[in-house]
Amino acid sequence: MTTFLIVGLIGAALLVVSTLIGDLLGAFNIGDGLISGASVGAGLTFFGIPGYLVLSSGGSLWLALAAGIVLAAAAMLMIRTITRRLAASSEPATYDLIGLAGITTEATTATYGEVKLSHPREINKRLAFSTDPLPAGVSVVVTETLGSKVKVAPTTTERLSE
Question: What residues form the membrane-spanning segments (predicted)?
Answer without folding.
Answer: 6-27, 34-55, 61-79
